[in-house]
């Protein structure tokens, strides 16, 4: 489950993506098209969290619970 925040207010993914695309940080970022998807995937290889934080955006990736039943 992924939770999106703008200035510590929980928002939808669409609102978060809209704010990201309109931020100055987005306009200046060299790898702008990879930052948001990498942050959603939990990767910070491009400094994703820092870039998003500069725009007032935070993405929290909560671990998925294990499926019931398991493998036989």
Provide structural commentary.
This is DUF2188 domain-containing protein. The chain has 72 residues and is of the alpha+beta class. The protein has one domain. Helix content is 42%, strand content 18%. The chain is built from 4 helices and 3 strands. Strands 2-1-3 form a 3-stranded antiparallel sheet. Strand 1 and strand 2 form a beta hairpin. The longest helix has 9 residues. The radius of gyration is 14 Å and the shape is globular.
- What is the arithmetic mean of pLDDT? 87
The helix/strand order is EEHHHHE
Number of helices: 4
The counted number of beta strands is: 3
Q: What sort of overall outline do the alpha carbons produce when their principal axes are compared?
A: globular
Query: How widely separated are the two ends?
Result: 26 Å
Instruction: Write out the strand line-up for the largest beta sheet, numbering strands in chain order.
Output: 2-1-3
Structural class: alpha+beta
Q: How many structural domains in the coordinates?
A: 1
Helix % is 40-55%
Strand content bin: 15-25%
Backbone CA Rg:
14 Å
Instruction: Tell me about the largest β-sheet.
Output: 3 strands, antiparallel
Low-confidence segments, given as residue ranges, are none
Protein name: DUF2188 domain-containing protein
Keywords:
72 residues; 3 strands; globular; 3-stranded antiparallel β-sheet
Summarize the structure.
The chain has four helices and three strands; from the N terminus they run E-E-H-H-H-H-E.
Write the layout of secondary structure elements.
Blueprint: E1 2-6, E2 9-11, H1 13-21, H2 24-28, H3 32-40, H4 48-54, E3 57-61
Antiparallel strand pairs: 1-2, 1-3
Helix pairs in contact: 3-4
């Amino acid at each position: 489950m992924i939770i999106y925040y703008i200035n510590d207010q929980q928002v939808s993914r669409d609102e978060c993506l809209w704010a990201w695309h309109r931020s100055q940080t987005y306009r200046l970022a060299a790898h702008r098209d990879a930052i948001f998807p990498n942050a959603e995937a939990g990767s910070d290889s491009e400094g994703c969290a820092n870039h998003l934080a500069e725009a007032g955006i935070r993405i929290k990736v909560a671990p998925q619970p294990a499926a019931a039943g398991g493998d036989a």
